[in-house]
Structure formats: C-alpha cells, structure tokens
Amino acid sequence: MTKAIVIGGSRGIGKSISESLQEIGCEVLATSRKEIDTSNIESVKKFSEHQGNTDILVLNTGGPPAKEFFSITEEEWQKYHNQLFLGFCLILKNIKINEGGYIFLISSSVIKEPNPKLIISSAYRLAFSSVLKILSKDFAKKNISCINIAPGPINTQRTKELVENVDEYTQSLPMGRLGEPKEIGNFVKSIVQNKVKYLSGVVINFDGSNSNHIF
Amino acid sequence: MTKAIVIGGSRGIGKSISESLQEIGCEVLATSRKEIDTSNIESVKKFSEHQGNTDILVLNTGGPPAKEFFSITEEEWQKYHNQLFLGFCLILKNIKINEGGYIFLISSSVIKEPNPKLIISSAYRLAFSSVLKILSKDFAKKNISCINIAPGPINTQRTKELVENVDEYTQSLPMGRLGEPKEIGNFVKSIVQNKVKYLSGVVINFDGSNSNHIF
Amino acid sequence: MTKAIVIGGSRGIGKSISESLQEIGCEVLATSRKEIDTSNIESVKKFSEHQGNTDILVLNTGGPPAKEFFSITEEEWQKYHNQLFLGFCLILKNIKINEGGYIFLISSSVIKEPNPKLIISSAYRLAFSSVLKILSKDFAKKNISCINIAPGPINTQRTKELVENVDEYTQSLPMGRLGEPKEIGNFVKSIVQNKVKYLSGVVINFDGSNSNHIF
Amino acid sequence: MTKAIVIGGSRGIGKSISESLQEIGCEVLATSRKEIDTSNIESVKKFSEHQGNTDILVLNTGGPPAKEFFSITEEEWQKYHNQLFLGFCLILKNIKINEGGYIFLISSSVIKEPNPKLIISSAYRLAFSSVLKILSKDFAKKNISCINIAPGPINTQRTKELVENVDEYTQSLPMGRLGEPKEIGNFVKSIVQNKVKYLSGVVINFDGSNSNHIF
Fold it and tell me: Cβ of B134: how many Cβ atoms within 10 Å?
C-alpha cells in the first residue's frame, strides 16, 4: 500500500490530487488546516513530528491575499514566510520519504513570471523552489523524485477571488479556458501510476500555453 | 482509434514512445530513415505531403556526431539545419494535427545547458524549441497540447557513443544511473492516457535531477 | 589603437555602437551591406577572409520582415538562417579576435520571449546565442569577453515598421519610451572604456524593465 | 552632487563599488555593520527611517556560513530571512530613491544555479530578486533603473573561506582567475557615468563565463 500525505488536501488542487491518488489505491492523508496550519510553525512541528514515513509527499498551500508591496507589513512577510517557505522546510526536515518515493511541490507560474499583486507568493514560492531543486540531488540517491508543478490559471476559488472578470480573463487565455484541478490530479496520478522516476529536479509549467518565456 | 506518427520511431527513445502508445491502443506509424530522412528536405516533403491527419505527432531525431566548432563545415551546418530544424518546420506545416491532439518534441537537455561537443544540436534543437513555443499558442486554440521533453542522459546507443567511460559517468549522476527510454515512453503514454491537456507550451527536463539551473 | 569591426554598423544600433567606440579612440570599421551582406554566404566569406585580427567584434544585423509561420517559405528559412546564424558562425571562424578583446552580439529580447510575428528571428538569434555561450568558455582562456545584449523596444526604423501605433505602444512601456540606440552604444563603450572583463558568457536584457520573466 | 548609499560598503564588493562611485564624484555613504545590521530588523528600521532621499542605492550584504539543509535551525532561517530578504524590503519601503536614480542589487550566481552548501543564500537572494523584478516596473515610471548583478566567483575574503583549495579552484575557472571586486565597482560606475538608463529589470551574471545555462 502506497502512503501519501497531501498538505492542503481538503480543497482545490490539493483535493484533486488526493482523489486522483486514491483512484490508484494510495492511502491518502489529505490535511486541512485542522491537521496542519502551515502559517503556524508550532502547528507544522506538531504535525510533522507525529507522522511516520510516507511514500508520497505533496507540498501544497494557499497563498496570501493580493497585496501591493508598499502596503505589506513586517508581520505579513513573517506570516507568509512561515506558510510558503519555512513550514515546508520543516516538513521536509521531519517527515521521512521512503526510498523510491515522490515529492510534489505545487508552486505557481509566478515563480517564473512574478506578479505585482502576488509579490509575497512570487518571492517565497520561488525561494522554496530553490530549496527543493537543491534537495532533489540528494533525494535522487534514494530514488526519490522531486517534481515542482507550477500551475498557471486554474479553476479554483482562489482564481475567482483574484481575477476581476473571470469570463473575460478566461477568453483571453490560449486555450480559452482555465485549467481544471482534476488535470493536475491526473498528471500527478499518471506519474505515480507509470512509475516515472527519472522526471526529477524539474519545474513543470502547467498553464495551457499561457507563459511567454521560452522555458 | 487514436493515430500517432513517431518520427525516428524505429529505435531508442522514439521506439519506446511508439511501443508505449501502442500499449494504450494507438495506431502508431513509427518511421525509420526509410520512410523519412529528416536531413533530406525532399524526403521530408514527400513523406509529410502524403500523410493525412494525425492525433499525435512525435518529433524526434538523432543528432550529429560530436564535433568542435572550428571543425564544423558549412555543409554540416546546412545538413543538420535540415535535420534538426527545417525538416521539423516543414512537417508541422504539412501534417495536420487533429483537434484535441498532441505534439511531443523530443529535444535535449543541451537546449538549456549547451554542450561544446554538441554545439550543432545545442543550437538547432533550441531554435526549434522556440518555434514550437510560439506555435503552442495557436495550437492551444484547437486544444492541441505541445510538450517539449528535454532528455538528459538516457541509456541509448548514442549515449554510449558520446561518453567515454559510461560506467564512471553513470556513477557520477544524481540517480547513479542513466534514464531508460521506456521511462520517456511511459511519460508520454501517461499524459495521453490521462488526457492531460493543460500541460502545453512547456519544456520538461527529463534528466534525473542532473541539471543545475533552478529552472 | 584598439580596432573594432561592427557588422551592420551603418545604421540603427550598430551605428550608435560604432560612434560610441570612436569616442573613446577606437579605429572602427562599420560595415554596411556593401562591405558584407550576412544573408549571402559568399559575401561573408569574402569579407571575413580579408580581415586581419580585431580587438572588438560586434555581431549585429537586421531581421527579416514580420511573417507568420505557415507563410514562411523554405527559401526564406534558408536565407535568414544564413543572415542570422550561419554568417555569424563563419565570421567567428575566420576573423581572429586579439587576446583581451571583446565580442558583442546584438541579439533581441525575442530570444527569451519568442514573438509569433518574428518567429525567424526568435529561432535563429536564439540558436546563435547558444553558439556564443559555448564559445565564451574557450574565448575566456584568451581573456576575450563575450557579451550578448538582447535589446527590447529600441527607437529604430525597424521598430517603427513593426509596430502599428508607435505612440500607443510607447506609452504602454514601463519607462513610457523606447530605448535609444545611443544607450546601447554608451553601454558597450562603458564596458570597453572601464576594461570590464569578467562580464562574459552573459545575456543582458536591455529593455527598460519590459520583460516579465524573473531572469 | 549625486548621493549614493552602499549597504555593506565597508569591505569586499561593496567597498569597491563605493570607491568607484566616489571616483566619479558621488557622495557615498558606505555602511558597515555599525550603521546598519541587515540581520537585525530594528537596526534596519532605525537606519532607513533616518535617511533622506538618495540617487543611488546599492543593496549588498554578506551571506551566512556554509551549511547543509538538515542542520539549519529555525532560528538561522529567521535570521538570514531578515538579513537577505526582509531587511532589503524594509529599506526599499523606507528610503526614497530620487527620480532618474539607480538601485543596484548585488545578489549571487546561486540565484540561478542554487548551491547545496549555500542553500540559505540561494533561496533568499532569489526571493529578493523576484521582489526587485516586480518593483522595477514601478520604478521605471520614475526613470529609476533596477539592476541585479549576480556575481560568480569573486576574489573576496568570503570566497577564500568557502573554497577549500583556492588555487585549484581558480585554475578550473574559464578565465583561470577569480573576478576582482574592482571589476564590479567599475561596471557599476560605468553605468552611472554613461547614464545608461534603459538597462533595468535585469539580472546580470558577472562570472567570467562560468555558468552553464544559456541564460
């Protein structure tokens, strides 16, 4: 039985990944804020110290509300530093991934094309992407694949909150639609199901041809 | 019945992709140099003008022998310009991809980290990656996903020819092994099988954590 | 006396670089199409075989007219392959750069963010950027610095031809203006003047904060 | 009189930049840890709230000692989050840059090629690079250029501490030598001196052809 822990697994993309992994027989622990609040370091420590090993770890968390640089307070930087960066570091430090396992990070397209409204996410999600890239080389020795999925515009509650006119926005996208959480779920499932292991240390844009940079 | 054309499908990575697509019931035309020689523009035109539509197109071709810049002749630049760039452009111009289809490009990790021994590949495979990126936005309108897979060190005949001491090289890799062509085959299969469509306009390193750049 | 060859030095950015280098006492050969036509391989060979050494080489050339992928002919690919890629390769193969010298490539922002209207430029300028990156490591041994400047929207005749409404476009730019050719000239001058040598093997966006990718 | 504030201006690269700016007549405030300790938020606030405007701001600071991921404590993450990220954010929030000015960030080549020994630097310097990229678009409206210089191996005390065998390392570099702090000083000077303004929102590798990624 393959065990999976999906942080932020109770809704949106995390929920879809949880369901997709269940479809192929994984035993999934899909956490909500009740089990672990990644913005609270004590909560993170308590949670991660009580987990045993896992085969699959999905690092996923919501982002802060849209906020412009000059209005961000010191406390907000600290809070989201915990939520988007330090919490994940502590989880990786404390939860043991079994040999042959997977670590999936659900980051965001803003790690490559930083967004002025999402400056906190842009910065800290990118910082953690650097950490995962470094660690991917060590994990590779234990045949653990580290895969950073960077979603673009996905059909979640959050997108509806961030975008003013969703219909107009949707029509401006190359595929004329938002991505569905289920597509990311299916993608994660397909990798695990087919034992794709050499895909590691990689950032994968998942944005329906929306980005403009060649990479 | 899903139809697939796999250029360079008679050996190595192309062969593995062909087999993987057959496993899920695709009707695969796996070409060898007999059907189409991508270094020969006339051969490319003849082949691509006689194909009808396809659902899946895999653009894959071998590279030139290792050669240092100052020893490359004008004729060699021209030949491999055909093989690695212009031939693929003409194929895309002439073969119609059905709505909801896929284009996979098998490029190379040298598009991001150019290799002095593989300067011809580094340059022309990158040039074609730019073309595919641009076209991915148009293809997106027809729900056709364009996916550029950039393999690192894979266990093929070519790698054995290029690397002096394969064992030593292998041990220096993060996973302690080369990637298997079958892993790329499985990856392509898994995307088609699970109808992952929003993954498009993307370059995916497939190198077992071997690259050093954050992206 | 420092000698400089500026390809495409009779107008636009090339002309500004030529003038800037003259200001600091360089002996500049600023070529027009009379001296060398980079789209014509015979012309390139004739020119480059008759040059002796140089201290500074500026590789600069105009681009093709805007054209959409499906309307580009085989002959056009071949022509601009010569102009934007092969011609520069042959120049580098034939003209000797003196120790402690500089090679400047004037590429374009489309090497990072490929442009559907400028697909030929996007592809071939990027291909040549790969070649220069590779060669920069060899040239480094002779203390020759290779600097790839990738201009964004610059106030040249070409920009006026490519952009429909220049005023509107200009106002949409972060600095509210196009870059001036003289600014690139000054930048090249400043590097030579201050003997900045460790700046090498680098691509430098020169676009007034216009690009969106973090790098 | 052009005013410049150089954070970390008392030694290494910061000192060289300070001296170079003085050579062209700038009034330079080169801070040491006495004036401002970027790892201490109170110190940062006290310093930055007492500065008036400046024309040039150089954001520069030393990095943490080399440390492997699993040995980094929560307190160390917090401390260097202050030093390499939050401190700089607060400086930018509090010190006003005059129209037509410059912001230089001295980051590191590890922002592109993260280094396992320098994981803290890799992550937080990259995070701040994202912030500066975003802000560069706003600053552009006031003709303020934001330039992120990412030095590779430079001849500083720090490099001597980090590298085991400096001679061996030096010989392995493309130019056969480390970069000199003075070269970065000269580069910064040359940009200011020649009023190069359209160079903005850019990350510039300064590494003597040492990096391997095409960008």
Answer: 24
